[in-house]
Structures are given as C-alpha cells and as structure tokens.
Sequence to fold (227 residues):
Amino acid sequence: MVLTAIAQALPIAVGLALAALPIVLIPIALATKRPGRVARAFLGGWFLGVAVVGAIVILAADVVVLPNDHPRWLSYVKIALGVLLVGWAFQKWRSRTRPGEDPEAPNWMAAIDSMTAGKAFGLAFALASVNPKNLVLVVSGATVIADATSLPGEQAVALIVFALVASLGVAAPVALPLILGDRAEPVLASADRWMTRYSTVIVAVVLLVLGVILLVNGITGAATGAP
Fold:
C-alpha cells in the first residue's frame, strides 16, 4: 500500500517541484548573494511547509474517513482541485512573457541582499503552505496519499517521499555550490536567466497536466464509486 501511495502521489510531487520554478529563483539568488546557511534555511522552511500541510490534510482525512472506507466525495474533491488547476494553468499561460518582451524583475529581489536565515525560513514556509497554487498541489498530493492507504506509518513514509521530491527544485541551488564549488556560480546565473524567461510557461503546462490527471482520476472514481 505504501508503494501505491507513493506511486500515485509522485506525479503531483514532481509537478509541485516544477510548478515551484519561479520560487527556485529565490534560493538561486540566496546561494549566490548570501551565506550558505541562508539558502539552507530556505530549503528547510520549504520542506517543512509541504510536510506540515500534507500531514494536516492526511490527519483530517483520517478523522473524516473510516478505515477501509472510500467515500465518493473524495472523488469530487479531486474533480474540484483538477478544475482549479486547469483554470490556474490558463491564467499562467495568459501572463507568460511574450517574444520580444523582457521579463519583469521579481519584487522580492530587493530584499535578497539583506535576508537572514530566519527570514528565509519563514518566507519558504509561507510559500509552501500559504501560497494558493502550492497549497492546492500539496493538498492534492496529501489527498491522494490518504486515499491510497489508511495506515499512519505508510502515510508518513509516503508524505516524506512526497515532500522530498517536491523540494528537489528548491534543493538544487543549495546543493550545487557544495558539489561544484566556484563553478556553480555561472551555472546558477544561467539557470536564473532561463527560468526568469520560461518558468511561467512551464508552470502553466505542469498545472494543466496535473489538473487533467486529477479530473480523470476524480471522474473515474465518482463513476465507479471508488476514488
């Protein structure tokens, strides 16, 4: 069951890692402009934010749903989340940078030079747990885990794997300086330029794919009586 939970939640975790590409610009800037502990604090806040929200959703599902019970309303939750993600995808697509346009610099860039480890941790935790787009994806992944298994130990393992995979994008800028040393700076600078221009398009595609997956899963579950 734990493998089933991981397998079903994994696409959403990968999607969250990709959908967080605009946020990855923050640890990239931190890794190049601030001490390493600040970028590591950001990574810790992101991971904990995903894990805490996921745990709350799973606990809530466990309280509402009896063991081995698979109510049809969980399928309707997936349908609603799928519709929300598809709508978000079209909104992101409309806001993409057009050819010939220069992407706008994020508002948070001015605060990077003075950001402390505590502020970085709090910002990352908020982005993972309060930011609407990321929150919807975390809730979607936790709902899938709660559907797949009712055993708390298996749910915990699946949630940890989910949070780890969802944190890969944020972790990369933190890990690269440790692996490449001084050679990491041009790689991070190149990644920064590329993601600044194309992250919105990538996020739109990811949200659309995940939304369709949730819609199909939810509609199938509602039709068969099992999520």
